[in-house]
Specification:
Blueprint: H1 2-20, E1 24-27, H2 40-48, E2 52-59, E3 65-67, H3 101-104, H4 130-144, E4 151-155, H5 169-182, E5 189-193, H6 196-205, E6 210-215, H7 220-224, E7 233-236, H8 243-251, E8 255-256, H9 264-273, E9 277-280
Length: 286
């Protein structure tokens, strides 16, 4: 009996280690490399690939939570209701925070195709309400008998655009978390942001919510000093990731999930450094 007992102990420890080190693959803006970004269609395909649904949250003029990276109608992907393109010099004039959602929904973001992603499938698509997207992907998971999806939602705020392109962080965070709690998905949601003001609010008011600190550059210690707490995840630009940075994060009990690696070579290099996950426009490569 003793050999069997020790075998079971070793097996359990091994299984625990496997569970703890599971690689966290995330589909950037859904699966932007292959589908129109931040759409219900892209999030369903992300589920097909077993990846986390990474998305960006913005607001309409009537204070509805919408899923959009840019806070204006982007010339690269948008067609007007008449099927016309928008000039880049004019795009910020289409401020989503100044447009009611009923109007926003009329613009197509799937038929033009993003010039930077030639593999992206062209199809009719619109900027969805966050509530509608959640309902759709939750239903899709049940229909396909998938595990219920995990979400990584970015609060898109910065001080210079408060009340111009979005509400201030207090209102933004409160409205977002109220919807997350209403949909009963809080245990499967991580909140990310470059704006430390938003992260401090989430940490203060929603203690159980996982937090990812997005950064463009700078050292780990310099960036962590900007926060009053230790985030669950440190999320830097993939170009700045080194083995030493990975070790520093792990030494502090912080996971590191860089953005946005899009080639097999980039992904393999990051995996070899020991990152805990990767955000990619091509989660199929993960």
């Amino acid at each position: 009996m003793k050999p069997l007992f020790f075998f079971l102990i070793l097996f359990a420890v091994g299984m625990g280690a496997t569970a703890q080190t599971k690689f966290d693959k995330q589909g950037h803006r859904g699966i932007r490399g292959l589908m129109p970004e931040n759409t219900i269609q892209s999030m369903k395909m992300t589920q097909d690939l077993g990846a986390v649904l990474e998305m960006d949250i913005s607001f309409s003029a009537d204070k509805q939570l919408i899923v959009s990276h840019d806070q204006w109608l982007t010339a690269d992907i948008v067609l007007t209701p008449e099927g016309k393109t928008i000039l880049k010099k004019d795009q910020k004039g289409y401020n989503l925070y100044k447009m009611p959602y009923e109007e926003i929904r009329k613009y197509d973001i799937g038929m033009k195709g993003h010039p930077g992603f030639p593999q992206q499938k062209k199809m009719p698509a619109y900027i969805p309400l966050l509530a509608e997207l959640i309902d759709s992907v939750e239903l899709y998971a049940k229909k396909m008998k998938y595990k219920l999806p995990r979400y990584n939602m970015e609060i898109k705020t910065k001080e210079s655009s408060d009340n111009v392109f979005h509400p201030e962080p207090e209102e933004f965070s409160k409205r977002l978390m109220e919807l997350i709690n209403k949909k009963k998905i809080q245990s499967r949601v991580m909140i990310q942001s470059f704006d430390v003001r938003a992260l401090e609010i989430i940490h203060r008011d929603y203690k159980k919510t996982k937090i990812s600190y997005l950064v463009h550059a700078g050292s780990l210690n310099e960036n962590l000093k900007k926060l009053s707490f230790k985030p669950d995840v440190y999320s830097p630009n993939y170009k700045g990731v080194t083995k030493e940075l990975v070790k520093q994060c792990h030494a502090q009990g912080i996971k590191i999930i860089p953005w946005t690696a899009n080639t097999k070579e980039q992904i393999e290099a990051l995996k070899n450094m020991g990152v805990d996950g990767i955000i990619s426009d091509y989660p199929n490569l993960l």
